[in-house]
Amino acid sequence: TQVWIRDDELVWKCCEIQSTVRDDFIVKFDDDTEAKIPRQQEFHLRNKDVFSSEGLVVLDDLTQLQHLHEPALLHALQIRFDTDKIYTFTGPILIAMNPFKRIPGLYDIDKLDQVLRNPACAREPHVFAVSNYAFRGLCDTETPQTVLISGESGAGKTETTKFVMKFLALAGAGDQGVSNIEKKVLESNPVLEAFGNARTLRNDNSSR
C-alpha cells in the first residue's frame, strides 16, 4: 500500500508499507531505503496513477481524485504545473498557479475564440472558462455576475483580472469588434499601474 507521510524537506513524501512490527510500520521509499514509522504518525493513502496511450492521465478537476487530501492535492497540482497546465478545477473553483513565465498560446485570441464557440473548450480549466461562465450567466439570466479572485501577494491576481476583462470585452463586442471605449479601458492598465503599483519584497509590480 502506497501512502504519503510527513517530511521535513518535501512536506509530504511517498512510500510503500512493507510490513508491520508491533506498533510500527516498515516503509520503503522510492530510493529503496527503508524506515520504521509509528502507527500514530499522520499518513494518507496515495491515489493510483492512471495511464493512457498518451502517458500519465492528468485530471482537470481535483474532485475526481479517489482520495482527496493535502498531499494528493499538492501532488496533482505539481504534475500539472510541470507540464505547464497552470489551471485546475476543484469543483466550481479554479486554482491558478503563477508560472512566472510566458506560456505560448495560453491567452491569445485563438484560445479566447475557442472558449467562446466550443463548449468542450469552455469546460477545460482556464481563466477564460470562468469568464465565459460569468458572461453566459449575465446573458441568460440578465442578473449581475461576480468573479472573485483571491490569493497572496504575487499570486497573479492583477494579471488574472486583466484576462477576465479582456475576455468580457471581446465576448461582449461580438462580431462588431471591440469599441473605442472598451479598447481604452483595456489599455488603461499601464497608466493605472504607473500610479497605483509599488515594488514589495515578494512582488516587483504589486497592485497597491
UniProtKB/TrEMBL annotation:
- Can you name this protein? Myosin motor domain-containing protein
PROSITE patterns assigned: MYOSIN_MOTOR
Q: Could you tell me which residue ranges the Myosin motor domain spans?
A: 57-208
The UniProt record lists the keyword Nucleotide-binding: yes
Q: Specify whether ATP-binding is a keyword of the entry.
A: yes
What InterPro entries has UniProt attached to this entry? Kinesin_motor_dom_sf, Myosin_head_motor_dom-like, P-loop_NTPase
**Keywords associated with the record:** Actin-binding, ATP-binding, Motor protein, Myosin, Nucleotide-binding
